[in-house]
From TrEMBL:
Origin organism lineage: Eukaryota, Metazoa, Chordata, Craniata, Vertebrata
Gene: Mr1
Transmembrane spans: 299-323
Biased composition (Basic and acidic residues): 346-365
GO terms under biological process: immune response
SMART domains in alphabetical order: IGc1
Species this protein is from: Acipenser oxyrinchus oxyrinchus
Keyword Signal among UniProt keywords: yes
Residue intervals of the Ig-like domain: 198-290
Signal peptide: 1-18
Protein name: Major histocompatibility complex class I-related gene protein-like
Record family assignment: Belongs to the MHC class I family.
Length: 365
């Protein structure tokens, strides 16, 4: 258990950032001969990996740069026994399940668990086991019972219920230790997890399947993850039809991004105004970014510019070909003229020589 007194000295206590935060645990056992480690475990806070472990290692390692050595040792001291205990159990669960089904070949057994803290104070813990990627059995933390997801998992439910030691360890982690670890992470990482204001960019493009225009509202760089993004018409009507929404995705720097695309017909573009409205915990009030088609990229001018540039390139190529052809023709003409002059010269020389010979013969006679 984490010694909270020491941690409060090492970490300046702040209120946790708004939103829902999660501490996830992923453990995967793989059949021998698959070319992977027999067991791999990863711990993550929200979308940030904290620890990594596989069966070739003696103990888990940190994958973060925001925990100093002293605090990191304290963290691992609490987490390591659970990771190592799972390592001793999950591969065994895989072997038992494979034998029970009389399966051959490569198979996997996954354990996915963790806890959540909501900004309203609500807490939730969960633990699911999967065989070959499908729900197999889960632990209900509230009722403290194992629940078989499929009839074939009933045999394993009885095995787990008979193992009181594992049941207690599982219960301790998901009702106490997991939440303490998560609260500690939030307290120690406040500098990284402070609220960050979203940046909003509107991008215009021609719609792919209609004569209209797609306007992309790209919202990025915000934290926490919860965000509200809507397209508004004429300053009041919230639009749902003609709007495509992407998922909230991590940027890799502990911030998030989201895209919402509005398709506007040429007629509606002339009759209405549109704006992208963003609501976020970092904002005192909702942000409205108005779409101004005149200020957006004019695809007609772009197309005309491309065609003009293409025409210029073609003209240059044709001109070069004509010049090359004319230069080649001139060379042939010069060569022909030189050949003709050379022939005429030889002929004149022959006639002159003949006349000279005749004159000499006359004088001799």
């Amino acid at each position: 258990m984490i010694r909270m007194t020491v941690l409060r000295i090492l970490c300046w206590v702040h209120a946790a950032a708004a939103g829902t935060h999660k501490l996830h645990f992923f453990g995967v056992a793989t059949s021998e001969g698959a070319g992977f480690p027999d067991y791999v475990a990863v711990e993550m806070m929200d979308d940030v990996q904290i620890t990594y472990y596989n069966n070739t290692m003696k103990k888990p390692i940190f994958r973060t740069d925001w925990i100093n050595e002293t605090v990191g040792h304290e963290f691992l001291e609490t987490l390591t026994p659970y990771i190592l205990y799972s390592h001793s159990r999950i591969p065994r669960s895989l072997r038992n399940t494979v034998q029970h089904f009389n399966h051959t070949g490569v198979h996997t057994y996954q354990q996915v668990g963790g806890c959540e803290l909501h900004d309203d104070g609500a807490r939730r813990a969960y633990l699911n086991h999967e065989y070959d990627g499908k729900d197999f059995i889960s632990f209900d933390v509230e009722t403290k019972t194992w629940v078989a997801a499929v009839p074939q998992a009933v045999f394993y439910k009885h095995k787990l219920e008979a193992n009181t030691a594992w049941k207690q360890i599982t219960l301790d982690y998901h009702t106490r230790e997991c939440f303490q670890l998560l609260e500690w992470c939030l307290q120690c990482e406040m500098e990284t997890l402070q609220r960050k204001v979203p940046a909003v960019t509107l991008i215009q493009r021609k719609a792919r399947e209609s004569a209209g225009t797609d306007v992309i509202c790209h919202v990025t760089g915000f934290y926490p993850q919860e965000v509200e993004v809507n397209w508004i018409r004429d300053g009041e009507a919230l639009l749902e039809e003609g709007v495509w929404s992407g998922e909230v995705l991590p940027n890799g720097d502990r911030t998030y991004q989201l895209r919402k695309i509005l398709t506007v017909s040429p007629e509606d573009q002339k009759k209405h105004s549109y704006s992208c409205q963003v609501g976020h915990a970092s904002l005192d009030e909702k942000m409205d970014v108005k779409w101004v088609p005149e200020a957006a990229l004019n695809m007609g001018f772009v197309a005309a510019g491309v065609l003009a540039a293409l025409g210029l390139i073609i003209a240059v190529i044709i001109g070069a070909l004509i010049w090359k052809k004319r230069a080649s023709a001139k060379e042939q003409s010069d060569a022909s003229s030189n050949s003709s002059n050379s022939t005429n010269g030889d002929r004149c020389d022959s006639i002159a020589e003949k006349l000279t010979t005749q004159e000499e013969n006359k004088q001799l006679s």
